[in-house]
From TrEMBL:
The lineage of its organism: Bacteria, Pseudomonadati, Pseudomonadota, Alphaproteobacteria, Sphingomonadales. Keywords: Signal. This is Gamma-glutamyltransferase family protein. PANTHER family: GAMMA-GLUTAMYLTRANSPEPTIDASE (AFU_ORTHOLOGUE AFUA_4G13580). InterPro entries: GGT-like_enzyme. It comes from the Bacteria. Residues 1-21 form the signal peptide.
Length: 598
Protein backbone atom coordinates (compact mmCIF):
# COMPACT_ATOMS: atom_id res chain seq x y z
CA UNK A 1 0.00 0.00 0.00
CA UNK A 2 2.79 2.41 0.94
CA UNK A 3 4.71 1.55 -2.19
CA UNK A 4 1.66 2.38 -4.30
CA UNK A 5 1.19 5.63 -2.38
CA UNK A 6 4.81 6.67 -3.03
CA UNK A 7 4.61 5.75 -6.68
CA UNK A 8 1.42 7.76 -7.09
CA UNK A 9 2.99 10.74 -5.36
CA UNK A 10 6.07 10.51 -7.54
CA UNK A 11 4.03 10.36 -10.71
CA UNK A 12 1.79 13.17 -9.61
CA UNK A 13 4.55 15.78 -9.46
CA UNK A 14 8.39 10.70 -8.95
CA UNK A 15 37.19 4.87 5.78
CA UNK A 16 38.58 4.39 2.28
CA UNK A 17 39.30 0.84 1.25
CA UNK A 18 42.34 0.16 -0.98
CA UNK A 19 41.49 -0.53 -4.61
CA UNK A 20 41.31 -4.11 -5.75
CA UNK A 21 44.07 -5.14 -8.18
CA UNK A 22 41.73 -7.40 -10.14
CA UNK A 23 38.15 -6.96 -11.36
CA UNK A 24 35.45 -7.22 -8.70
CA UNK A 25 34.78 -10.75 -7.51
CA UNK A 26 31.12 -11.81 -7.49
CA UNK A 27 29.73 -12.43 -4.00
CA UNK A 28 28.81 -15.86 -2.76
CA UNK A 29 25.13 -16.83 -2.76
CA UNK A 30 23.24 -15.90 0.40
CA UNK A 31 21.42 -18.38 2.60
CA UNK A 32 18.43 -16.10 2.80
CA UNK A 33 14.77 -16.96 2.76
CA UNK A 34 12.11 -15.48 0.51
CA UNK A 35 9.41 -12.97 1.36
CA UNK A 36 5.82 -13.75 0.45
CA UNK A 37 5.18 -10.24 -0.88
CA UNK A 38 6.80 -6.87 -1.43
CA UNK A 39 10.34 -6.22 -2.60
CA UNK A 40 12.42 -9.39 -2.55
CA UNK A 41 15.40 -7.58 -1.01
CA UNK A 42 13.33 -6.32 1.93
CA UNK A 43 14.33 -7.87 5.27
CA UNK A 44 11.18 -7.09 7.26
CA UNK A 45 7.88 -5.26 7.04
CA UNK A 46 7.63 -1.61 7.92
CA UNK A 47 6.53 -1.09 11.53
CA UNK A 48 3.21 0.76 11.85
CA UNK A 49 1.89 3.00 14.59
CA UNK A 50 -0.47 5.89 15.20
CA UNK A 51 0.40 7.34 18.60
CA UNK A 52 4.16 7.21 18.35
CA UNK A 53 7.14 5.69 16.60
CA UNK A 54 10.85 5.36 17.34
CA UNK A 55 13.68 3.92 15.29
CA UNK A 56 17.17 3.62 16.75
CA UNK A 57 20.25 1.46 16.31
CA UNK A 58 19.73 -0.44 19.61
CA UNK A 59 16.40 -2.07 20.56
CA UNK A 60 16.63 -1.14 24.25
CA UNK A 61 17.01 2.53 23.29
CA UNK A 62 13.96 2.25 21.04
CA UNK A 63 11.95 0.85 23.95
CA UNK A 64 13.09 3.71 26.19
CA UNK A 65 11.88 6.20 23.59
CA UNK A 66 8.46 4.52 23.46
CA UNK A 67 8.22 4.51 27.26
CA UNK A 68 8.86 8.26 27.31
CA UNK A 69 6.21 8.82 24.65
CA UNK A 70 3.68 6.73 26.57
CA UNK A 71 4.46 8.73 29.73
CA UNK A 72 3.39 11.92 27.97
CA UNK A 73 6.75 13.03 26.66
CA UNK A 74 7.24 14.76 23.34
CA UNK A 75 9.23 13.35 20.45
CA UNK A 76 12.08 15.63 21.56
CA UNK A 77 11.94 14.17 25.07
CA UNK A 78 12.02 10.65 23.66
CA UNK A 79 14.92 11.49 21.34
CA UNK A 80 16.97 12.83 24.27
CA UNK A 81 16.21 9.73 26.34
CA UNK A 82 17.09 7.40 23.47
CA UNK A 83 20.28 9.31 22.70
CA UNK A 84 21.38 9.08 26.33
CA UNK A 85 20.77 5.32 26.23
CA UNK A 86 22.74 4.92 23.02
CA UNK A 87 25.67 6.77 24.58
CA UNK A 88 25.74 4.02 27.20
CA UNK A 89 24.83 1.04 25.03
CA UNK A 90 26.62 2.00 21.79
CA UNK A 91 29.72 3.90 22.96
CA UNK A 92 31.40 2.80 19.74
CA UNK A 93 29.41 5.44 17.91
CA UNK A 94 28.30 8.20 20.25
CA UNK A 95 28.09 9.61 23.75
CA UNK A 96 28.11 12.85 25.68
CA UNK A 97 31.72 13.40 24.63
CA UNK A 98 30.52 14.02 21.06
CA UNK A 99 28.42 16.39 18.97
CA UNK A 100 24.78 16.45 17.89
CA UNK A 101 22.66 17.79 15.05
CA UNK A 102 18.88 17.62 14.71
CA UNK A 103 15.95 18.65 12.55
CA UNK A 104 12.60 18.95 14.32
CA UNK A 105 9.17 19.22 12.74
CA UNK A 106 7.09 21.31 15.14
CA UNK A 107 3.35 20.76 14.59
CA UNK A 108 2.51 23.99 16.44
CA UNK A 109 4.50 26.31 14.18
CA UNK A 110 4.19 23.89 11.23
CA UNK A 111 7.82 24.36 10.29
CA UNK A 112 11.20 22.72 10.59
CA UNK A 113 13.80 23.79 13.14
CA UNK A 114 17.49 22.95 12.78
CA UNK A 115 19.90 22.48 15.66
CA UNK A 116 23.68 22.66 15.39
CA UNK A 117 25.12 21.35 18.66
CA UNK A 118 28.70 20.89 17.49
CA UNK A 119 31.65 22.02 19.55
CA UNK A 120 34.59 24.28 18.88
CA UNK A 121 38.35 24.19 19.05
CA UNK A 122 40.05 25.41 22.24
CA UNK A 123 40.49 29.17 22.34
CA UNK A 124 44.01 29.05 23.77
CA UNK A 125 45.67 27.21 20.88
CA UNK A 126 46.70 28.78 17.57
CA UNK A 127 47.07 27.11 14.19
CA UNK A 128 50.84 27.35 14.50
CA UNK A 129 50.77 25.65 17.90
CA UNK A 130 48.57 22.85 16.59
CA UNK A 131 50.87 22.36 13.59
CA UNK A 132 53.81 22.05 15.96
CA UNK A 133 51.93 19.60 18.17
CA UNK A 134 50.94 17.54 15.13
CA UNK A 135 54.54 17.51 13.95
CA UNK A 136 55.59 16.06 17.31
CA UNK A 137 52.95 13.38 16.73
CA UNK A 138 54.32 12.60 13.27
CA UNK A 139 53.02 15.06 10.63
CA UNK A 140 52.82 18.86 10.77
CA UNK A 141 50.34 18.84 7.88
CA UNK A 142 47.85 16.38 9.34
CA UNK A 143 46.04 16.29 12.69
CA UNK A 144 46.18 12.83 14.29
CA UNK A 145 42.83 11.05 14.33
CA UNK A 146 43.22 10.29 18.04
CA UNK A 147 44.64 11.94 21.15
CA UNK A 148 44.06 15.48 22.46
CA UNK A 149 44.97 17.22 19.21
CA UNK A 150 41.73 15.89 17.71
CA UNK A 151 39.43 16.89 20.59
CA UNK A 152 36.88 19.68 20.29
CA UNK A 153 34.44 20.69 23.03
CA UNK A 154 31.51 18.21 23.13
CA UNK A 155 28.21 19.78 22.09
CA UNK A 156 25.73 16.97 22.78
CA UNK A 157 24.66 17.89 26.31
CA UNK A 158 24.01 21.50 25.33
CA UNK A 159 22.00 20.18 22.37
CA UNK A 160 19.86 18.19 24.79
CA UNK A 161 19.31 21.35 26.79
CA UNK A 162 18.13 23.35 23.79
CA UNK A 163 15.84 20.58 22.53
CA UNK A 164 14.38 20.18 26.00
CA UNK A 165 13.91 23.89 26.66
CA UNK A 166 12.10 24.45 23.35
CA UNK A 167 10.20 21.19 22.78
CA UNK A 168 10.33 19.18 26.00
CA UNK A 169 7.44 18.27 28.30
CA UNK A 170 8.90 15.96 30.96
CA UNK A 171 11.67 16.80 33.46
CA UNK A 172 15.21 16.09 32.31
CA UNK A 173 15.68 13.80 35.32
CA UNK A 174 12.86 11.59 34.03
CA UNK A 175 14.44 11.44 30.56
CA UNK A 176 17.82 10.33 31.92
CA UNK A 177 16.49 7.94 34.56
CA UNK A 178 16.26 4.84 32.27
CA UNK A 179 19.88 5.21 31.15
CA UNK A 180 21.06 5.80 34.71
CA UNK A 181 19.32 2.57 35.74
CA UNK A 182 20.88 0.60 32.87
CA UNK A 183 24.29 2.12 33.65
CA UNK A 184 24.10 0.99 37.26
CA UNK A 185 22.31 -2.35 36.81
CA UNK A 186 23.79 -3.33 33.47
CA UNK A 187 22.57 -4.08 29.94
CA UNK A 188 23.32 -6.88 27.45
CA UNK A 189 25.74 -5.83 24.71
CA UNK A 190 24.37 -6.53 21.22
CA UNK A 191 26.15 -8.26 18.36
CA UNK A 192 27.54 -5.60 16.05
CA UNK A 193 28.28 -3.15 18.85
CA UNK A 194 30.32 -5.85 20.61
CA UNK A 195 32.35 -6.40 17.45
CA UNK A 196 33.11 -2.68 17.02
CA UNK A 197 33.88 -2.38 20.74
CA UNK A 198 36.49 -5.16 20.72
CA UNK A 199 38.04 -3.80 17.54
CA UNK A 200 38.35 -0.32 19.07
CA UNK A 201 40.01 -1.70 22.19
CA UNK A 202 42.75 -3.30 20.10
CA UNK A 203 43.21 -0.05 18.20
CA UNK A 204 43.44 2.06 21.37
CA UNK A 205 45.99 -0.34 22.86
CA UNK A 206 48.24 0.18 19.84
CA UNK A 207 47.69 3.95 19.78
CA UNK A 208 48.43 4.28 23.49
CA UNK A 209 51.60 2.23 23.16
CA UNK A 210 52.71 4.54 20.33
CA UNK A 211 51.98 7.64 22.43
CA UNK A 212 49.33 8.96 20.02
CA UNK A 213 46.71 8.54 22.75
CA UNK A 214 48.44 10.33 25.60
CA UNK A 215 46.73 8.59 28.52
CA UNK A 216 45.40 5.04 28.48
CA UNK A 217 44.55 4.00 32.00
CA UNK A 218 41.11 5.64 31.98
CA UNK A 219 39.80 4.06 28.77
CA UNK A 220 41.02 0.67 29.98
CA UNK A 221 39.29 1.12 33.34
CA UNK A 222 36.04 2.18 31.68
CA UNK A 223 35.67 -0.08 28.66
CA UNK A 224 37.64 -3.27 29.38
CA UNK A 225 36.44 -6.20 31.47
CA UNK A 226 38.92 -8.97 32.23
CA UNK A 227 41.34 -7.35 29.81
CA UNK A 228 39.07 -7.18 26.76
CA UNK A 229 35.97 -5.61 25.31
CA UNK A 230 32.62 -7.30 25.95
CA UNK A 231 31.26 -10.17 23.87
CA UNK A 232 27.71 -10.29 22.58
CA UNK A 233 25.34 -10.93 25.47
CA UNK A 234 27.76 -9.68 28.14
CA UNK A 235 26.05 -7.67 30.89
CA UNK A 236 27.97 -4.40 30.94
CA UNK A 237 27.76 -1.79 33.70
CA UNK A 238 29.00 1.80 33.62
CA UNK A 239 28.24 3.35 37.02
CA UNK A 240 30.68 6.17 36.22
CA UNK A 241 28.39 7.39 33.44
CA UNK A 242 25.45 6.92 35.80
CA UNK A 243 27.07 9.37 38.26
CA UNK A 244 27.71 11.90 35.49
CA UNK A 245 24.13 11.69 34.24
CA UNK A 246 22.81 12.08 37.80
CA UNK A 247 24.68 15.39 38.04
CA UNK A 248 23.21 16.57 34.72
CA UNK A 249 19.73 15.44 35.78
CA UNK A 250 19.94 17.28 39.09
CA UNK A 251 21.82 20.43 38.07
CA UNK A 252 20.80 20.86 34.42
CA UNK A 253 22.73 20.60 31.19
CA UNK A 254 24.75 23.75 31.96
CA UNK A 255 26.48 21.77 34.71
CA UNK A 256 28.43 19.94 32.01
CA UNK A 257 29.98 23.22 30.86
CA UNK A 258 30.15 25.37 33.99
CA UNK A 259 30.06 23.06 37.04
CA UNK A 260 32.09 20.31 38.64
CA UNK A 261 32.05 18.22 35.46
CA UNK A 262 33.70 21.06 33.54
CA UNK A 263 36.25 21.43 36.35
CA UNK A 264 37.10 17.72 36.12
CA UNK A 265 37.41 17.75 32.32
CA UNK A 266 39.60 20.86 32.32
CA UNK A 267 41.86 19.44 35.04
CA UNK A 268 42.25 16.21 33.06
CA UNK A 269 43.24 18.01 29.86
CA UNK A 270 45.75 20.18 31.69
CA UNK A 271 47.26 17.10 33.33
CA UNK A 272 47.89 15.36 29.99
CA UNK A 273 49.34 18.50 28.38
CA UNK A 274 46.33 19.53 26.26
CA UNK A 275 45.30 23.18 25.75
CA UNK A 276 41.62 22.71 26.66
CA UNK A 277 40.55 24.78 29.66
CA UNK A 278 37.33 25.38 31.58
CA UNK A 279 36.84 28.61 29.63
CA UNK A 280 36.44 26.54 26.46
CA UNK A 281 33.53 24.69 28.03
CA UNK A 282 32.01 27.83 29.54
CA UNK A 283 32.05 29.63 26.17
CA UNK A 284 30.36 26.79 24.30
CA UNK A 285 26.98 27.50 22.72
CA UNK A 286 24.72 25.50 20.43
CA UNK A 287 22.66 27.22 17.77
CA UNK A 288 19.25 27.03 16.15
CA UNK A 289 19.81 27.21 12.39
CA UNK A 290 17.56 27.30 9.34
CA UNK A 291 17.43 24.03 7.40
CA UNK A 292 17.99 24.29 3.65
CA UNK A 293 16.30 22.31 0.89
CA UNK A 294 15.99 21.45 -2.77
CA UNK A 295 12.89 20.19 -4.52
CA UNK A 296 13.40 16.74 -6.03
CA UNK A 297 10.56 15.73 -8.35
CA UNK A 298 7.99 17.44 -6.12
CA UNK A 299 9.45 16.44 -2.76
CA UNK A 300 11.32 18.98 -0.62
CA UNK A 301 14.42 17.34 0.87
CA UNK A 302 15.93 19.15 3.85
CA UNK A 303 19.40 19.21 5.36
CA UNK A 304 21.35 21.53 7.67
CA UNK A 305 23.83 24.08 6.28
CA UNK A 306 27.61 23.89 6.91
CA UNK A 307 29.70 23.33 8.98
CA UNK A 308 28.09 19.96 8.12
CA UNK A 309 28.10 18.16 4.79
CA UNK A 310 24.33 17.88 4.37
CA UNK A 311 24.11 20.12 1.32
CA UNK A 312 26.22 17.57 -0.59
CA UNK A 313 23.16 15.29 -0.58
CA UNK A 314 21.09 18.14 -2.00
CA UNK A 315 23.69 18.88 -4.67
CA UNK A 316 23.65 15.22 -5.72
CA UNK A 317 19.84 15.25 -6.00
CA UNK A 318 19.90 18.47 -8.04
CA UNK A 319 22.25 16.82 -10.52
CA UNK A 320 20.23 13.58 -10.66
CA UNK A 321 16.97 15.38 -11.35
CA UNK A 322 18.16 15.95 -14.91
CA UNK A 323 17.98 12.21 -15.64
CA UNK A 324 15.13 9.71 -15.92
CA UNK A 325 16.46 7.29 -13.32
CA UNK A 326 13.23 5.27 -13.18
CA UNK A 327 13.54 4.51 -16.89
CA UNK A 328 17.17 3.46 -16.45
CA UNK A 329 16.29 1.05 -13.64
CA UNK A 330 18.39 0.13 -10.61
CA UNK A 331 19.90 -2.85 -12.42
CA UNK A 332 21.51 -0.75 -15.15
CA UNK A 333 25.11 0.39 -15.17
CA UNK A 334 23.92 3.76 -16.51
CA UNK A 335 22.02 4.41 -13.26
CA UNK A 336 24.95 3.58 -11.01
CA UNK A 337 27.40 5.48 -13.23
CA UNK A 338 25.35 8.69 -13.29
CA UNK A 339 24.83 8.50 -9.51
CA UNK A 340 28.54 8.06 -8.76
CA UNK A 341 29.60 10.84 -11.13
CA UNK A 342 27.07 13.22 -9.53
CA UNK A 343 28.48 12.30 -6.15
CA UNK A 344 32.03 13.08 -7.30
CA UNK A 345 30.99 16.56 -8.42
CA UNK A 346 29.23 17.33 -5.14
CA UNK A 347 32.16 16.07 -3.10
CA UNK A 348 34.64 18.23 -5.00
CA UNK A 349 32.65 21.25 -3.79
CA UNK A 350 32.43 19.70 -0.33
CA UNK A 351 36.21 19.52 -0.13
CA UNK A 352 36.70 23.15 -1.17
CA UNK A 353 33.82 25.18 0.26
CA UNK A 354 32.19 23.55 3.33
CA UNK A 355 33.33 25.11 6.63
CA UNK A 356 32.19 26.94 9.76
CA UNK A 357 30.02 29.83 8.52
CA UNK A 358 31.15 31.97 11.46
CA UNK A 359 34.62 32.06 9.90
CA UNK A 360 34.02 31.75 6.16
CA UNK A 361 30.97 32.17 3.97
CA UNK A 362 29.89 29.00 2.20
CA UNK A 363 27.93 29.94 -0.95
CA UNK A 364 25.01 27.63 -0.09
CA UNK A 365 22.40 29.38 -2.25
CA UNK A 366 24.53 29.16 -5.37
CA UNK A 367 25.66 25.58 -4.72
CA UNK A 368 22.00 24.52 -4.48
CA UNK A 369 20.77 26.55 -7.44
CA UNK A 370 19.32 24.97 -10.59
CA UNK A 371 21.66 27.04 -12.73
CA UNK A 372 24.73 25.66 -10.99
CA UNK A 373 23.40 22.09 -11.24
CA UNK A 374 22.75 22.57 -14.98
CA UNK A 375 26.30 23.79 -15.46
CA UNK A 376 27.92 21.00 -13.45
CA UNK A 377 25.76 18.27 -15.02
CA UNK A 378 27.48 18.93 -18.36
CA UNK A 379 30.64 17.42 -16.85
CA UNK A 380 29.06 13.98 -16.50
CA UNK A 381 30.07 11.89 -19.48
CA UNK A 382 29.82 8.26 -20.49
CA UNK A 383 33.08 7.27 -18.79
CA UNK A 384 34.29 7.57 -15.21
CA UNK A 385 35.99 10.88 -14.45
CA UNK A 386 39.47 10.27 -12.97
CA UNK A 387 39.48 13.66 -11.21
CA UNK A 388 36.99 16.42 -10.57
CA UNK A 389 37.56 20.08 -9.76
CA UNK A 390 35.27 22.09 -7.52
CA UNK A 391 32.93 24.43 -9.35
CA UNK A 392 33.91 28.03 -9.94
CA UNK A 393 31.43 30.29 -8.24
CA UNK A 394 30.55 33.87 -9.25
CA UNK A 395 33.62 36.01 -8.59
CA UNK A 396 35.78 32.97 -7.84
CA UNK A 397 39.44 33.17 -8.85
CA UNK A 398 41.68 30.13 -9.35
CA UNK A 399 44.01 29.90 -6.48
CA UNK A 400 33.66 12.79 9.64
CA UNK A 401 31.52 6.52 13.87
CA UNK A 402 27.96 7.72 14.56
CA UNK A 403 24.39 6.87 15.55
CA UNK A 404 21.17 8.09 13.96
CA UNK A 405 17.70 7.98 15.55
CA UNK A 406 14.27 9.35 14.78
CA UNK A 407 11.13 9.69 16.91
CA UNK A 408 7.57 10.84 16.20
CA UNK A 409 4.79 11.51 18.70
CA UNK A 410 0.98 11.58 18.79
CA UNK A 411 0.88 15.34 18.23
CA UNK A 412 2.82 15.10 14.98
CA UNK A 413 6.24 16.24 16.21
CA UNK A 414 9.03 14.41 14.37
CA UNK A 415 12.69 14.53 15.38
CA UNK A 416 15.59 13.61 13.12
CA UNK A 417 18.71 13.37 15.32
CA UNK A 418 22.28 12.31 14.67
CA UNK A 419 25.06 12.11 17.24
CA UNK A 420 28.65 11.00 17.09
CA UNK A 421 32.05 10.60 18.73
CA UNK A 422 33.50 10.48 15.19
CA UNK A 423 36.16 8.06 14.05
CA UNK A 424 36.98 4.82 15.82
CA UNK A 425 34.87 5.34 18.98
CA UNK A 426 36.50 8.71 19.70
CA UNK A 427 39.84 10.20 20.70
CA UNK A 428 40.80 7.47 23.17
CA UNK A 429 40.71 10.00 26.01
CA UNK A 430 38.43 9.52 29.03
CA UNK A 431 38.39 12.15 31.77
CA UNK A 432 38.32 11.28 35.47
CA UNK A 433 37.16 13.04 38.63
CA UNK A 434 40.54 12.98 40.33
CA UNK A 435 39.29 10.46 42.88
CA UNK A 436 39.76 7.24 40.96
CA UNK A 437 36.55 7.31 38.94
CA UNK A 438 36.17 8.11 35.26
CA UNK A 439 33.38 10.38 34.03
CA UNK A 440 32.00 7.44 32.05
CA UNK A 441 32.45 8.62 28.46
CA UNK A 442 35.09 9.20 25.79
CA UNK A 443 35.82 12.51 24.09
CA UNK A 444 35.22 12.82 20.36
CA UNK A 445 38.03 13.25 17.81
CA UNK A 446 36.10 15.56 15.49
CA UNK A 447 38.93 18.11 15.43
CA UNK A 448 40.87 15.77 13.15
CA UNK A 449 38.64 17.09 10.35
CA UNK A 450 40.25 20.55 10.43
CA UNK A 451 42.70 21.50 7.69
CA UNK A 452 46.15 22.73 8.74
CA UNK A 453 46.41 24.79 5.54
CA UNK A 454 45.88 28.40 6.63
CA UNK A 455 44.39 29.27 3.23
CA UNK A 456 41.70 26.58 3.35
CA UNK A 457 38.16 27.60 4.42
CA UNK A 458 38.21 24.68 6.88
CA UNK A 459 41.56 25.71 8.40
CA UNK A 460 41.90 25.30 12.14
CA UNK A 461 41.34 28.43 14.23
CA UNK A 462 40.73 28.96 17.96
CA UNK A 463 37.03 28.74 18.77
CA UNK A 464 36.16 27.41 15.30
CA UNK A 465 33.91 24.46 14.47
CA UNK A 466 35.48 21.83 12.19
CA UNK A 467 33.95 20.45 9.03
CA UNK A 468 31.37 17.92 10.18
CA UNK A 469 30.18 14.69 8.57
CA UNK A 470 27.06 13.94 10.67
CA UNK A 471 23.81 15.10 9.08
CA UNK A 472 20.11 14.56 9.86
CA UNK A 473 17.58 14.74 7.02
CA UNK A 474 13.89 15.38 6.48
CA UNK A 475 11.39 15.29 3.62
CA UNK A 476 8.23 17.37 3.18
CA UNK A 477 5.68 17.96 0.43
CA UNK A 478 3.49 21.04 0.06
CA UNK A 479 4.62 22.22 3.48
CA UNK A 480 3.56 19.01 5.24
CA UNK A 481 5.91 16.53 6.99
CA UNK A 482 6.50 13.23 5.21
CA UNK A 483 9.67 11.63 6.48
CA UNK A 484 12.28 12.00 9.17
CA UNK A 485 15.36 9.99 8.20
CA UNK A 486 19.10 9.70 8.26
CA UNK A 487 21.94 7.41 7.28
CA UNK A 488 25.10 7.64 9.37
CA UNK A 489 28.63 6.73 8.40
CA UNK A 490 31.19 9.46 7.58
CA UNK A 491 31.33 10.33 3.88
CA UNK A 492 28.66 7.68 3.24
CA UNK A 493 26.02 10.02 4.60
CA UNK A 494 25.28 12.45 1.73
CA UNK A 495 25.47 9.71 -0.90
CA UNK A 496 23.36 7.48 1.37
CA UNK A 497 20.70 10.17 1.90
CA UNK A 498 20.46 10.64 -1.85
CA UNK A 499 20.15 6.87 -2.39
CA UNK A 500 17.25 6.66 0.09
CA UNK A 501 15.43 9.53 -1.62
CA UNK A 502 15.95 8.06 -5.10
CA UNK A 503 14.82 4.61 -3.93
CA UNK A 504 11.57 6.08 -2.66
CA UNK A 505 10.82 8.80 -5.21
CA UNK A 506 12.12 7.22 -8.42
CA UNK A 507 11.55 3.55 -7.63
CA UNK A 508 8.48 3.72 -5.36
CA UNK A 509 9.98 1.89 -2.39
CA UNK A 510 8.67 2.23 1.15
CA UNK A 511 10.89 3.29 4.09
CA UNK A 512 12.13 -0.19 5.06
CA UNK A 513 12.63 -1.36 1.49
CA UNK A 514 14.50 1.85 0.61
CA UNK A 515 16.94 1.18 3.44
CA UNK A 516 17.39 -2.52 2.69
CA UNK A 517 18.21 -2.01 -1.00
CA UNK A 518 21.84 -2.53 -2.02
CA UNK A 519 23.99 0.61 -1.79
CA UNK A 520 27.19 1.99 -3.21
CA UNK A 521 29.85 3.89 -1.28
CA UNK A 522 32.24 5.92 -3.41
CA UNK A 523 35.54 6.70 -1.68
CA UNK A 524 38.97 8.27 -2.24
CA UNK A 525 37.66 11.75 -3.12
CA UNK A 526 39.21 15.12 -2.42
CA UNK A 527 39.05 15.68 1.35
CA UNK A 528 37.99 18.79 3.35
CA UNK A 529 41.27 18.53 5.28
CA UNK A 530 43.15 19.27 2.04
CA UNK A 531 45.31 16.17 2.48
CA UNK A 532 43.92 13.99 -0.31
CA UNK A 533 43.04 14.46 -3.98
CA UNK A 534 41.21 12.10 -6.30
CA UNK A 535 43.34 11.39 -9.37
CA UNK A 536 42.18 7.95 -10.53
CA UNK A 537 38.39 8.16 -10.25
CA UNK A 538 38.24 6.74 -6.74
CA UNK A 539 36.72 3.40 -5.78
CA UNK A 540 33.09 2.26 -5.81
CA UNK A 541 32.39 -0.11 -2.92
CA UNK A 542 29.16 -2.04 -3.45
CA UNK A 543 27.01 -4.63 -1.75
CA UNK A 544 26.22 -8.10 -3.02
CA UNK A 545 22.77 -7.03 -4.21
CA UNK A 546 24.28 -5.13 -7.15
CA UNK A 547 24.29 -7.60 -10.07
CA UNK A 548 27.64 -8.71 -11.46
CA UNK A 549 26.69 -7.62 -14.99
CA UNK A 550 26.32 -4.05 -13.66
CA UNK A 551 29.76 -4.24 -12.08
CA UNK A 552 31.38 -5.47 -15.29
CA UNK A 553 29.72 -2.69 -17.29
CA UNK A 554 30.90 -0.08 -14.76
CA UNK A 555 34.45 -1.41 -15.08
CA UNK A 556 34.15 -1.00 -18.84
CA UNK A 557 33.30 2.66 -18.24
CA UNK A 558 36.56 3.04 -16.29
CA UNK A 559 35.28 2.64 -12.72
CA UNK A 560 37.10 0.61 -10.11
CA UNK A 561 34.53 -1.49 -8.27
CA UNK A 562 34.79 -3.75 -5.25
CA UNK A 563 32.23 -5.93 -3.50
CA UNK A 564 32.61 -5.47 0.24
CA UNK A 565 30.71 -5.27 3.52
CA UNK A 566 30.58 -2.70 6.29
CA UNK A 567 31.00 0.85 4.97
CA UNK A 568 27.39 1.43 3.92
CA UNK A 569 26.13 3.27 6.99
CA UNK A 570 23.24 2.87 9.38
CA UNK A 571 19.75 4.07 8.42
CA UNK A 572 16.56 4.75 10.35
CA UNK A 573 13.40 6.39 9.04
CA UNK A 574 9.84 7.33 9.93
CA UNK A 575 7.36 8.06 7.14
CA UNK A 576 4.06 9.77 7.97
CA UNK A 577 1.22 8.83 5.64
CA UNK A 578 -0.15 12.18 4.41
CA UNK A 579 -3.73 10.87 4.26
CA UNK A 580 -4.12 8.67 7.35
CA UNK A 581 -1.44 10.04 9.66
CA UNK A 582 -0.10 6.51 10.24
CA UNK A 583 3.61 6.30 10.96
CA UNK A 584 5.72 3.77 9.03
CA UNK A 585 8.96 2.98 10.88
CA UNK A 586 12.10 1.48 9.37
CA UNK A 587 15.32 0.31 10.97
CA UNK A 588 18.68 -0.54 9.44
CA UNK A 589 19.22 -4.27 8.82
CA UNK A 590 22.98 -3.65 8.81
CA UNK A 591 22.89 -2.63 12.50
CA UNK A 592 21.50 -3.96 15.77
CA UNK A 593 18.52 -1.62 15.73
CA UNK A 594 14.76 -1.70 15.85
CA UNK A 595 11.76 0.39 14.86
CA UNK A 596 8.75 0.18 17.16
CA UNK A 597 5.48 2.06 17.50
CA UNK A 598 2.13 1.98 19.21
Amino acid sequence: MLRNCLTALALSFAIATPAAAAPATPPAAKDQGDRYMGDTHKTRSDVLGVNGMAATSQPLATQIALDILKAGGSAADAAIAANAALGLMEPTGNGIGGDLFAIVWDPKSERLHGLNASGRAPYGQTLEQLRAASARAGDENDIPDWGWRSVTVPGTVSGWGMLHETFGKLPMAQLLAPTIAYAEDGFPVSELIAWYWRRSMTNFANLTEQGIVEEGENWRQLFLREGKGPDEGTIFRNPDLGRTLRIIAAEGTDSFYKGTLADAMAAYFERIGAPHRKEDFERHTSDWVEPVSVNYRGFDVWELPPNGQGIAALQILNLLEGYDLAAMGRDSDEFWHIFVEAKKLAFADRAKYYADPAFTETPVEWLLSDAYADERRKLIGAAAAPSVEAGRLPGDVEAADTIYLTVADKDGMMVSLIQSNYRGMGSGLVADDGAGNTLGFMFQDRGAQFSLDAAHPNAYAPGKRPFHTIIPAFMTKDGKPLMSFGLMGGAMQPQGHAQIVVNMVDFGMGPQSAGDAARFHHVQDDEPTGNARMTDGGLIEIESGVPLHVVRALETRGHRVEYTTGPFGGYQGIWKDPDTGVYFGASEMRKDGQAAGY
